[in-house]
Structures are given as structure tokens and as C-alpha cells.
């Protein structure tokens, strides 16, 4: 299992949290998701077969922006 933290812009309420969490959990290989609204971050635990682009796309499909880490 791998773990990553994704910076997400635009989350502000529990609906946002649920939306992002549920979208990520529908991806085969994603084991756990923890959303931190105040920090604008999402911790994701996933199998190495899951591409980061797949995670990013799932978040962006919900209407939020993934902020690349510099």
C-alpha cells in the first residue's frame, strides 16, 4: 500500500468532504481516504497499481481543483 496527501482547492463543507471521499473510494485499489477540510488536504491509501492521475481526475470530476505540489 502507498499513501499520498493531495492538496485540494475549493472544499468548504461536509458535502465537499463526502463528495471527494466517495469519489475516491469508488476507485478499485483505493483502501482509505481521510479528508481534512481546514487544511484543504486529502490523505489517500491505495495500491501501487492506481495512477495518481486517476486520483486527481476523480477529485476534479467532483468540481474541485488539485493543486500540484511544487
Automatic annotation (TrEMBL):
Sample GO molecular function, one term: copper ion binding
InterPro entries on file: Cu-bd, Heavy-metal-associated_CS, HMA_Cu_ion-bd, HMA_dom, HMA_dom_sf
CDD domains xref list: HMA
Keyword Transmembrane helix belongs to the record: no
Superkingdom of origin: Bacteria
Domain HMA: 2-67
PROSITE patterns given in the database record: HMA_1 (PS01047), HMA_2 (PS50846)
Keywords: Copper, Metal-binding
One Gene Ontology term from the biological process aspect of the record: copper ion transport
Pfam family, one: HMA
Protein name: Copper chaperone CopZ
Annotated organism of origin: Aureibacillus halotolerans
Amino acid at each position: 500500500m502507498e499513501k499520498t496527501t493531495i492538496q485540494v482547492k475549493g472544499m468548504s463543507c461536509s458535502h465537499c468532504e463526502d463528495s471527494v471521499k466517495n469519489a475516491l473510494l469508488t476507485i478499485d485499489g483505493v483502501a482509505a481516504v481521510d479528508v481534512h477540510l481546514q487544511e484543504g488536504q486529502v490523505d489517500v491509501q491505495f495500491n501501487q497499481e492506481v495512477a495518481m492521475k486517476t486520483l486527481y481526475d476523480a477529485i476534479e470530476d467532483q468540481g474541485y481543483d488539485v493543486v500540484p505540489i511544487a
